[in-house]
Design goal:
Number of helices: 14
Helix content: 55-70%
CATH class of the largest domain: Mainly Alpha
Number of domains: 3
Length: about 300
């Protein structure tokens, strides 16, 4: 695990919001959230021994009261992480909610006997929950599925600022190559992510013109069949399939076999192969096929079951 702050023990240490930080938070959120943050700060911090005892009760006995105390004492960490993700234009309240879910999972899976503090372990669960929420909230189109794409989502703007790549269009080839090298991602992913971050979701219910002649969705054309057309097509297909089965039963055995081998298998047989199988000439096979096809067409057109005539 990595962390920016290391204490004397050599392990990552978490800096919880100070009073000054709380004042900064209060300036950027509404009064309801301010009150919630003040309530969070009332929960006592836990010393290592108390935290270890509560974590063992939670793990071994499923003690909900112990789990609740662990969660309450680490909600400061959730708020701290939420404030770091504000630059993605996501409501702080939602970030805290998602981070709390991550913290609850961390408490549920935490093993106190491994020798590190819950805050170190919970940090990654909280960050993962908030990261996933930011990506899901950014666009209706899913922004990143792989680890590389997620990393690119959170680092591309920082890399563009570093390269002074402020243009609105596609990145220069030199910039793309440098981003690929530093982030170890593909050129295709860099170009695609840059375009998706530059675009904005737009509602299809927005008026298409100044005169209010309709919404953008009215101009979208769907070339697929309607439900009625699809139902009619399936009904017609089933009817024709039934007719074909009936007419095939009315053919002579050799006619039926030749039609199947020539038209109803994935790899049709040649006239030569069928002539050897039936011990007749290729021309005779062609004549039988032609006559059988004629019978099928007449029956399909007229609905006459007397195909053998």
């Amino acid at each position: 695990m990595r962390s920016q702050d290391y204490g004397k023990t050599g392990r990552p240490e978490i800096a919880f919001p100070s009073d000054d930080t709380t004042q900064v938070i209060a300036m950027s959120v509404d009064s309801g959230l301010q009150k919630y943050i003040r309530e969070i700060r009332k929960a006592p911090m836990l010393d290592p021994g108390e935290e270890h005892q509560l974590a063992r009760r939670c793990r071994d006995d499923g003690d909900d009261e112990a789990a609740g105390r662990l969660i309450a004492s680490h909600m400061r960490l959730v708020v701290k992480m939420a404030m770091q993700y504000r630059r993605y234009s996501v409501p702080v309240e939602d970030l805290i909610s998602e981070g709390t879910m991550g913290l609850m999972k961390a408490v549920e899976r935490f093993d106190p006997d491994r020798g590190f503090r819950l805050s170190t372990y919970a940090l990654w669960w909280i960050r993962a929950a908030m990261t996933d929420f930011v990506i899901r909230s950014w666009s209706l189109v899913r922004m990143g599925q792989t680890t590389e794409q997620r990393k690119l989502f959170f680092n591309l703007r920082k890399m563009k600022s570093k390269l002074r790549a402020y243009e609105d269009g596609d990145l220069r080839d030199s910039h793309v190559r440098q981003i690929v090298t530093e982030l170890n991602v593909s050129e295709k992913d860099v170009v695609a992510m840059n375009r998706r971050l530059a675009g904005q979701d737009a509602s299809l219910n927005v008026p298409a013109g100044d005169m209010g002649d309709g919404d953008w969705q009215d101009w979208i054309r769907d070339d697929k069949e309607t439900h009625d057309e699809n139902f009619a097509s399936r009904e017609e297909y089933a009817y024709r399939l039934k007719m074909l089965r009936e007419v095939m039963q009315g053919l002579k055995d050799r006619e039926r076999e030749i039609i199947i081998e020539r038209h109803l298998v994935e790899t049709p047989q040649t006239l030569e192969a069928l002539s050897r199988r039936h011990h007749i000439s290729r021309e005779r096979v062609r004549q039988i096929e032609h006559e059988a096809v004629g019978k099928i067409k007449r029956w399909m057109a007229e609905g006459n079951p007397a195909v053998g005539h």
